[in-house]
Write a structure and sequence with these properties.
Length: 525
C-alpha cells in the first residue's frame, strides 16, 4: 500500500498508522509523515516532527533528530497531554542518554511515566518503564531489571517485535553482568532469531556485539568467529555511525593493539560526526590503551587529555571536583616527561586511567545521590520538584509527602550516631519499597524525607500508610533492644506551579501531626 493511498484519512489517524510502521517499514512511515496535511512550507506538524525525528535517530542522524524533536516538544507541551507528547519526551530522553546526558534523560523518563497515568497508553508506559530501567542499570540493577522485564511482557502482548528485541537485548546484558551466562545466551538466541533484525542494522550490531562478548566468556571460538564476521559485514554494508561505534567497541576487546587501533580510529571519527557523544570518551580510552601498548605514549596522553576535556564538558556543573581532574592531567604530563622509562610509564598510565574512570563515575553519582541513604539528595529534589511543578495543572497535579522520624535526636543521643545512620538506611530501603516508577524519593535533611508523585495525593497517602505499617512491623530490636521507630507524615498536592508552596503545605501538615501526638498521617486541613 502506498502512502498516497492513505491520504484521505484524518491526519492524526494517518500518523498513528505511520508510527506503528516506524520500525517494520521506516521508508513507508517517512512517506506517510510527509503526506501529513498539516505540512506547511516544508515544516511538519509537531506529531509528524516527532515521527521524522525518530526515523532520523534510527538512521544515525542524531543532530537532526535532536533539533526536530526539540521543536515538536515546544508545541506539544502547549497542548493537552497525549500520546505524541509522551513519544516526544521518550525520544528526547533517549537522545540525551545517547549523548551521555544521563541526568536529563532520567528526568524526561520520569516525566513521561507520570503523564502515562493520565494518558493511559500501554505502549508509551512500557517504553518509559523500559528506558527508565536502562537508565537505572548502574545505580539499582535489581529494580532496573524488573522494569525492563515488565516492559518486555507488554511489548510481546502488543506484538511489538522490535521493542521486544531491544528489551531482550538489555536483559542479556543484565544476566551477563550478573554472571548468568547460560541465561544470557538463551535470551540472546531469541534476539538473533527476531525477523526484524535484518531491517535494523544498528540493533543487529548490538546483538552480535553481545554474542561476541558472551561467546568469549563461554570459550566458544566458532561463535566468536561468527559474531566477528557479522560485525565486519555490517560495517562494510552500512555507514550508520552508531553501528560502527558498537562494532568497534566489541571488536577491539582482546585484539592486538595495532588491530584494535585500526577498528577504533574510524569509530572515533564516526562519534565525532555525532557531536557530543557518550561513546566518544570510551572509544578514546580504548585508543589510549592501544597507543600505550604500541609505545606511542605522547599520542596516548593526547587521547587521554581529550577524554578529560570531554568529561569536563559533560559534567561542567561539578566544578568542585575539577581540581581532581586537573591533578590527573598534571600526572599525565609528568608521565610524558618520563617517556624513556617505557615499562614504568605504561603501568602508571593505565593506573591513572582507572583513577579517572572511577572519579567520573563518582562525580555522576554525587551530583544526585545522598551518600548515606542512597536516595536522591536535597539539590536534586528541588531541581526535579521545580520542573514537575512547572507542569502542574488541574489535569496533572503533583503530590508530596514529608516524613519525619519521631525523636530521632534521642536515638542518636542514647545509642550513638552509628545506630542512627543504620535506622536512616533501613528507612530508606522501606521508602524505595513503597515507591512507584516515576516517584522521586529524597533525603530532605537530617531525619526528614520527601516523596514526590505525579497525581492526586490519594495514591501517595496509601503508600505512606503502607510505609507506616512496614515501620511498625519491622524488627527494630535487632539493631538495639528497646529501639522503637515511628513516623509522622504530612501529605499535600497542588495544581499550581509553585513547588516551594507544595512543600510548605506538606510541612505544615507534618507539624500538625507532631503537635497532636505524632505517629500519624495528616493529608487535610
Amino acid at each position: 500500500m502506498s502512502a498516497l493511498a492513505l491520504a484521505p484519512q484524518q491526519p492524526l489517524t494517518l500518523l498513528e498508522d505511520a508510527w506503528s510502521l516506524r520500525d517494520t517499514a521506516p521508508d513507508l512511515a517517512r512517506q506517510m509523515a510527509q503526506t501529513d496535511g498539516r505540512f506547511v512550507d516544508g515544516h511538519p506538524s509537531p506529531e509528524a516532527g516527532v515521527l521524522l525525528a525518530y526515523l532520523n535517530w534510527r538512521a544515525g542522524h542524531l543532530s537532526r533528530a535532536v533539533s526536530q524533536v526539540g521543536a515538536a516538544l515546544l508545541d506539544l507541551r502547549a497542548q493537552a497531554a497525549g500520546p505524541w507528547l509522551m513519544r516526544a519526551l521518550n525520544l528526547l530522553a533517549a537522545l540525551h542518554s545517547r549523548l551521555g546526558q544521563r541526568d536529563q534523560a532520567a528526568a524526561l523518563y520520569e516525566e513521561q511515566l507520570g503523564l502515562s497515568r493520565v494518558v493511559g497508553d500501554p505502549e508509551c508506559t512500557a517504553i518509559a518503564q523500559h528506558d527508565l530501567g536502562v537508565t537505572l542499570r548502574a545505580s539499582d540493577p535489581v529494580r532496573a531489571r524488573a522494569h525492563v522485564a515488565g516492559a518486555l511482557e507488554t511489548f510481546q502482548a502488543l506484538g511489538n517485535l522490535y521493542a521486544a528485541a531491544v528489551a531482550q537485548l538489555h536483559l542479556v546484558r543484565f544476566d551477563r553482568e550478573a554472571g548468568d551466562l547460560s541465561a544470557a545466551q538463551a535470551t540472546l538466541e531469541q534476539v538473533l532469531a527476531c525477523p526484524l533484525l535484518g531491517q535494523h542494522p544498528a540493533l543487529a550490531a548490538a546483538a552480535y556485539a553481545e554474542e561476541l562478548t558472551v561467546a568469549r566468556a563461554l570459550d566458544q571460538p566458532e561463535r566468536v568467529k561468527r559474531a566477528r564476521r557479522h560485525l565486519r559485514e555490517l560495517c562494510a554494508a552500512h555507514d550508520h555511525p552508531e553501528l560502527h561505534i558498537t562494532a568497534a567497541l566489541a571488536l577491539s576487546v582482546g585484539a592486538q593493539p595495532a588491530a584494535a587501533l585500526a577498528v577504533l580510529t574510524p569509530a572515533v571519527a564516526a562519534a565525532r560526526v555525532l557531536g557530543v557523544n557518550g561513546s566518544l570518551p570510551t572509544l578514546l580510552e580504548r585508543v589510549a590503551e592501544a597507543q600505550a601498548a604500541l609505545g606511542q605514549h605522547q599520542d596516548a596522553v593526547a587521547s587521554l587529555c581529550e577524554v578529560l576535556t570531554l568529561e569536563r564538558e559533560l559534567h561542567h556543573a561539578e566544578r568542585r571536583q575539577g581540581f581532581r581532574m586537573l591533578d590527573v592531567l598534571h600526572r599525565f604530563h609528568h608521565l610524558e616527561a618520563a617517556a624513556q622509562e617505557q615499562q614504568r610509564y605504561t603501568a602508571e598510565l593505565q593506573s591513572h586511567l582507572r583513577d579517572l574512570q572511577t572519579l567520573n563515575a563518582r562525580i555522576r553519582e554525587l551530583s544526585r545521590i545522598d551518600g548515606l541513604t542512597r536516595l536522591h539528595n536535597r539539590d536534586y529534589l528541588f531541581q526535579e520538584g521545580g520542573r514537575l511543578a512547572e507542569l502542574c495543572s488541574a489535569q496533572t497535579p503533583l503530590s508530596a509527602a514529608m516524613l519525619d522520624i519521631y525523636h530521632f535526636k534521642w536515638v542518636n543521643d542514647t545509642w550513638g550516631h552509628q545506630l542512627g545512620d543504620a535506622v536512616l538506611q533501613r528507612l530508606a530501603q522501606m521508602l524505595r519499597a513503597v515507591a512507584e516508577p516515576g516517584d522521586i524519593v529524597a533525603r530532605y535533611g537530617g531525619e526528614e524525607f520527601v516523596m514526590l508523585r505525579p497525581g492526586r495525593q490519594d495514591a501517595l497517602r496509601a503508600s505512606c500508610q503502607a510505609l507506616q505499617g512496614a515501620v511498625r512491623a519491622h524488627a527494630w530490636g535487632e539493631l538495639r533492644p528497646g529501639l522503637r521507630v515511628t513516623l509522622s507524615i504530612g501529605v499535600a498536592d497542588t495544581e499550581a506551579n509553585d513547588f516551594d508552596a507544595l512543600l510548605g503545605e506538606a510541612d505544615r501538615r507534618l507539624y500538625r501531626v507532631k503537635s497532636s501526638g505524632r505517629n500519624a498521617i495528616c493529608a487535610a486541613d
